[in-house]
Amino acid sequence: MHTMWKGTISFGLVNIPVKMHAATENKDVKLRNLHKECQTPVKYQKVCPKCDREVDNDEIVKAYEYAKNKFVVLDDEELENLKKEQADKAVEIMDFVNLDEIDPIYFEKSYYLSPNEGGAKSYGLLRSALEDTGKIGIAKMMIRSKEQLAVIRIYQNTLVVETIHYPDEVRDVKDVPNVPEENNTEEKELETAKMLIDQLSAEFDPEKYKDEYRTALMELIEQKKNGDEVTTAEEKPKPDNVTNLMDALQESLDRAQKDKKPKTKRKTANTNTSSKEKKKVAK
Questions:
Q1: In b/e form, how buried is each residue of 142-174, taking b as 16+ CB within 10 angstroms?
Q2: How confident is the model at residue 267 (pLDDT cuts 50, 70, 90)?
Q3: What CATH code is carried by the domain that includes residue 142?
Q4: Are 89 and 8 within 8 A, CB to CB?
Q5: Cα–Cα distance list, 119 to 8, 128, 139, 264 (Å)
Q6: What is the pLDDT of residues 15-39, one digit of tens each?
Q7: 20 to 30 A Cα–Cα from 1, which one of 23, 69, 164, 224?
Q8: Beta carbons within 8 Å of 98's beta carbon, 6+ residues apart
Q9: 29-37 long-range contacts, Cβ below 8 Å, gap at least 24?
């Protein structure tokens, strides 16, 4: 697995050098946007509306919009210094809690932890301690320029970091519109619903659940591919500066030679005309 992060997990005076790996992957089928007329992929460019031109990455700076069209600009060095201050810190487990005390709405993304060099023994120690106590650890860590709140727990004999939202990132349920305050449910309806739930109750088996839309979409793509319903985008050839320069020079030379002959004739004609006029004036 690709290592996303290296660091140290600590609880008390115990330090565990670890590597972090993504535990999940996004298997969404990514579709490209093509120009209908020529079947060429459409590009999305970064354009400054004021200057009315495309801007390069080195022309872009980060800023925080604290009011409408009012910004505080932050340079790369300032952001890097802040990031480094947090990244250099060991990830310290602050508390140990019960997993069922955390509502699933807080959970965000999962990462596997593997012991780094020299960390196998302390890794096993934390794993055994969590397993025997039934607790999970609460810690803070820097992941991709963001300080994350996280839990450290066991999943199939492996330590897992589960990033969770901060409380202020979870929206207040009171803001959800049209939620009834009370249940106006008849007893017969409730009993029937409970019977239905009882009949559909089962042990959780993740293997039985499939992404039917993704499967159907991939089948459709394969059918079209095997039926030769494919299109090939013709990329615009990149300009060859040397070739273009030579072509331009040769074309310029050819034009200059063509233009030179008539000009010479016109000059001769003009000279003859002016000589005759001079003779007439002299007579």
A1: bbeeeebbbbbbbeeeebbbbbbeeeeeeeeee
A2: very low
A3: 2.40.290.10
A4: no
A5: 9, 14, 19, 89
A6: 888 888 988 787 788 888 888 888 8
A7: 164
A8: 134, 135, 136
A9: 29/214, 29/217, 29/218, 29/221, 34/231, 34/233
Kindly report the length of the chain: 283
Is 97 found in the same domain as 11?
Answer: yes
pTM: 0.64
CA dihedral for 168, 170, 173, 176, sign (positive or negative):
positive
Question: Quick one: pLDDT at residue 276?
Answer: 47
Residue 94, in any domain of the structure? yes
The pairing of beta strand 91-98 with beta strand 107-115 = unpaired
What pLDDT was estimated at residue 154? 95
Residue 96 confidence (pLDDT) = 94
Q: Which pair of tokens denotes residue 220?
A: 């459709």
Domain of 66, in residue numbers? 47-81
Domain limit, last residue, from 37, 63, 81: 81
| In a domain? residue 202 | no
Given this model, what pLDDT does residue 278 score? 46
- Tell me which residue of 8, 20, 15 sits closest to 125, measured CA to CA: 15
In a shared domain, residues 54 and 158:
no
